[in-house]
Amino acid sequence: MQKVGIIGAGSFGTAVSNLIADNADVLVYSRNEKTIESINKAHFHKEAKLQSNIIATNDIERITKECNLIFPIVPSKNFRSMMRDISPYLRPYHILIHGTKGFSADNQENITANDIYRISQVIEQESSVVRIGCLSGPNISKEILEGQPTATVIASQFREVITEGKKVLKSKRFQVYSSSDIRGAEIAGALKNIIAISSGILSGLKLGHNLWGLLITRGLTEMIHFGKALGSDIKPFLGVAGIGDLVTTASSQNSRNFTVGYHLAKGKSIKEISEIMDEVAEGVHTVLFAKKIADKYGLKVPITRMVYKIVHEDYSLTDALDYLINLDYEHDVDYL
Amino acid sequence: MQKVGIIGAGSFGTAVSNLIADNADVLVYSRNEKTIESINKAHFHKEAKLQSNIIATNDIERITKECNLIFPIVPSKNFRSMMRDISPYLRPYHILIHGTKGFSADNQENITANDIYRISQVIEQESSVVRIGCLSGPNISKEILEGQPTATVIASQFREVITEGKKVLKSKRFQVYSSSDIRGAEIAGALKNIIAISSGILSGLKLGHNLWGLLITRGLTEMIHFGKALGSDIKPFLGVAGIGDLVTTASSQNSRNFTVGYHLAKGKSIKEISEIMDEVAEGVHTVLFAKKIADKYGLKVPITRMVYKIVHEDYSLTDALDYLINLDYEHDVDYL
User: Fold this and answer.
1) What is the pLDDT averaged over residues B2-20?
2) How far is Cα B16 from Cα A330, in angstroms, rounded to an integer?
3) Which residues of A touch B234 (CB under 8 A)?
C-alpha cells in the first residue's frame, strides 16, 4: 500500500491524515512526543479516533524516505523553518501539496509588501521540489474528523499533482475538485480568515444575518481586489476554495478566526485571546500582511483596514462598525 | 411631508413601511380588517412597534391618489390579481418599486416556461406604469423590524426610480445600493429561495458548515446558469442582491424558505408545512417554475432539480443528498 506523509499534527493535519488513511497508509511528522505517543498508542488525537494505519514520527528524514507524496500542514509562521528542516532530504521526485492558509514572511521587524510570500513560493525558495500544489476549500477540521461530508480543491499547475492528490484524498464523504490556479486558491484561502474574524465580531455584538450577508459580499469583493493586484484570476474566488471556504469559515464557531473575532467583541485583547487558544488563528498574521499589500497597491479594502486597526492597533469596534455601515458604495460589484 | 404607498402588510411590507416612516408618511394597503385596525389603533403589527405616521387602508384607489411612489410587496401568487385591482387607478406618472421575490404565472394547470414572468414584467403587462424598480438584498424582515442595520439594492433602468426610492429608504441603519440590472436582481432574488430550502434541509439533517459552504457555492453557480439563460448579466449575482441575499436567507432561521427545508428534513410533508406557516414560502412555487425553465434551456442545475423532486414529487431526501454529494464536477467555476 502507498504511504503518504503529513507534516504537522494540528487539527487540519490530523483531519487530512484520517481522510487519506481510507486510501493509503499515513506517516505523520510531529515534534511533540505526547502527540506521537497519543497517535501511535491510543490512536486518538484532537478529540477524534484515528485510523490504525496512521503512524506518527519525530524523524522528518524518514517521511521523505518512505513517502513521495507529502502534505505539509503547519502554521504559516513556522512554514519556512519547517521547510529548512526538511529540505536537505527532499528531491525533485517529491510532490508537496500544502494545506496552510496564510502568507509567509521572514521573521523581520519591519515587514514590507515585498517580504510577503505565498506558501507555495516558500516551498520553491527553500527546496528542489517542483511539483507543488495546495488544498483549499470549506474544510473545518472538527467536521471532517466527525465524518461529515465535504469537498476540497487541489490547485496546482501540474496535472499529476492533482491526480496523485485526488487518488489518496477522494472518498464518498470527500469530493475533490481541481484547479490550475494555485495562486488564486492560496490568496483566497489566506484572506478569507480576515473576513472570518469580522464575522466573529458581528456575532459577538449580536448583529444579525442581514449585516452578515453584507459582510460576506463586501468581504469577497475585497478578497478579489487583493487577488487582482497580486496577479490572480477572479475565478478561484468564486468557487469552492473562494466563496465556499469563506462562508463556511465565517459561519462556523469551530473556526479559530471566527472565535478570535467573537472574543474581541466581548472585550478581550488579542494578547488575552492568544493565551486561551491552543492554536494561533492565521487571520491575525494575515491581516498584518494584507494591510502592507493594500498600502503598496493602494487598494480600496475598508473591511480589511478596519480589522487591521482593531487587531493590531486596538481600535474601537463600534467606531469601526459605524464607519463601515455608513460608507457609501455607489457600485455594488466593481471587479468585473 | 411626502406620502409613500405600500401594497401589502406582510412581514416585508411592514418592515419597509417602518423604514420609510423615518423619511416620509406611509399609507399601507391591506384587505385584512384586523391588520388595518392593529396598524391604525395599536401601531403594532408583525410583532413590532410601528411608527405613528404609518396609516393602513383597505381603499386601493386612495393609495394611487395620495402617493406617486408605491411599493407593491405581496406574494408572487397574488401579484397579478393585485395589479388588476390597482391598475385602473394607476397613471404613467406613478413609480412602482416592488419587493416581491418570486416569479409569476397565470394560474393555469399546465404551466410551461413561456408562461413564467418576472414581477416587473407583470407590472408592465397589467398597467400603464413605465418607471418600475425592484428591491433586493439581505433583508430578513424580523431583523429590520428590530432595528438591525443592513442594506438593499434598488434595481431599475430609470435613474429617477433609484433616486426617489433611495430618498425615502436610506437611513443610518439602511444603506441603499443602486443597479441598472433589474432583470438580474429579480432572478437572483427569486432563485435564492430554492437554495434556502436546501439549506434548511441540511440544517434539519444536522449536516455541518463544510457542506453548507459547498451548497452555497454550487447553488450560486446554478443561479448564474439560470440568469445567463434568461438573458441576465452575471454581475447582479455577485453583489448584495445576489450572494448577499443568498447567504443571509440560507443561514437565517427567520427565513420562511429555510424553515420549509428544515421541516422537510424532519419528515413533514409540504401540505403539513403549509398549514403551520402563516405566509407561504416563495421557494415552493419558484422551484416549480425553475424546473420548467431548466428543462426548456437544458440547464445543468442538479440542486434545483433535486429540490423540485423533494418538494413536488415527494422524493427521498437521503437519496437526493447521496446523489448530490457524489456528483462529479470536474470544473469548479464554469460560467465565466
Assistant:
1) 98
2) 21
3) 336
